[in-house]
Design goal:
Helices cover 25% and strands 31% of the residues. It has 9 helices and 20 strands. It has 2 domains: 50-307, no CATH class; 312-376, no CATH class. The chain has 378 residues and is of the alpha+beta class. The longest helix has 18 residues, at 50-67.
Length: 378
């Protein structure tokens, strides 16, 4: 006697309709699972980067038409900037504005060099000055900064880095406090990518050297860096682009990484637009597909600079008291050998919102009160 068929309580009386299958489909296209920040993610490796293709074709088409009859004119440089501004405007969220002008650091009373592209927010802090697209803004208002070059030489890169590397352009997303980017876009360059990387490396190493010292007894000392602008370079005549970023080397130090990414198109305009709109997590963190860039990138080359950087954030007493309102009386009573603190220095990656009280802040590695005449560990 044959065995009796055992039914499953989930057996259906009819096949699932196609409309249900389509309705519940997560994503179309080639799917890939990967681990990111300890979590398993699913991305779609679609081949249709519609926005990237549209912007690239539009800029190249208008460029070809313009250069066919205009070769020398005072307004030529403005035309190249105008093409890029139009593309950036199309990808910016409505809460942000696009302008040109200067960034003024009121704490240090220092004004930046004139900048071609400034993406900023005026929701909380209005511009210091604004006439049409020309603005002077506070670093706290800045979202992204860019420069446009018709052609790019190694001397141009060197000049841009020297003029901006120690500036205060605010804080770029996911970077230590006070660390931002200068996104340089060039239409063409006869300089090789490897040569540009070498120049970036040389200039950043020279900058870091300023923060290295020794005591009279010969001990090595690393001085704190409060502001830094990292150069990133993008091209219309090649698929590569160059990113510079900081990664946490220890609880106190940062490591400078220079990466050459190999893009999936014939140019790296889409990477530039992504960086200017601070939208690098599109398609990964949000779960939505990005039509501008792929979520996973091909790193062609990566250089790690040997000397670390100690990035510091200066906190005012007002910032500390606003974060810990229940500790105000304790703050008022602080005194060290008769000297009262007017602020504190902490690691630039410190997120005050994650701390529950003043004691947790003081216990952080590298924490130091800023005193009127000298500084002393708590």
């Amino acid at each position: 006697m044959g065995s009796k068929f055992k039914s499953n309580p989930l057996d259906l009386s009819k096949s699932i309709p196609n409309v249900v299958v389509s309705n519940q489909e997560i994503r179309k296209g080639q799917k890939l699972f990967f681990e990111y920040s300890g979590l398993v993610n699913l991305v779609t490796l679609g081949s249709h980067l519609d926005l990237a293709k549209r912007f690239s074709n539009r800029i190249k088409g208008e460029l070809e038409w313009f250069e066919s009859f205009v070769s020398h004119s005072p307004s030529v440089g403005g035309f190249y900037e105008h093409l890029i501004r139009m593309a950036i405007s199309d990808v910016l969220p409505s809460r942000w504005k696009l302008g040109e002008g200067f960034i003024y650091d009121s704490n240090r009373e220092v004004c930046s060099k004139q900048l071609d592209l400034i993406v900023y927010s005026d929701n909380d802090i209005p511009p210091i000055y604004r006439r049409d697209s020309f603005v002077v803004v506070s670093p706290k208002s800045v979202v992204a900064v860019g420069e446009v070059k018709k052609s790019l030489r190694s001397s141009d890169i060197r000049e841009q880095i020297k003029a901006t590397i120690s500036s205060n352009f605010g804080t770029y997303e996911n970077s230590p406090n006070g660390v931002s980017r200068l996104n340089i876009f060039c239409y063409k360059s006869s300089t090789s990518t490897s040569r540009i990387v070498s120049v970036i490396k040389e200039e950043i190493e020279a900058f870091i050297t300023n923060f290295k010292s020794t005591t009279k007894s010969g001990s090595k000392v690393t001085l704190g860096c409060c502001n830094m602008v990292l150069p990133c370079v993008f091209f219309l005549d090649r698929s590569e682009c160059i990113f510079t970023q900081l990664t946490q080397n220890s609880s106190l130090n940062e490591k400078v990484i220079i990466s050459v990414l190999q893009g999936d198109r014939e140019d790296s305009l889409h990477f530039f637009l992504e960086s200017m709109s601070a939208a690098e997590n599109n398609g990964v963190a949000s779960g939505d597909r990005s039509f501008l860039t792929m979520p996973l990138r091909n790193v062609k080359q990566e250089i790690s600079l040997p000397e670390p950087l100690f990035c510091v954030r200066n906190l005012t007493m007002e910032e500390i008291s606003n974060q810990f309102p229940k500790e105000v009386e304790r703050l008022k009573g602080l005194s060290f050998k008769g000297q009262r603190p007017f602020g504190a220095n902490v690691n630039a990656r410190t997120d005050l919102k994650k701390l529950s009280n003043l004691s947790e802040l003081i216990a952080l590695p590298g924490f130091q009160w800023a005193l009127m005449q000298s500084e002393m560990n708590a």
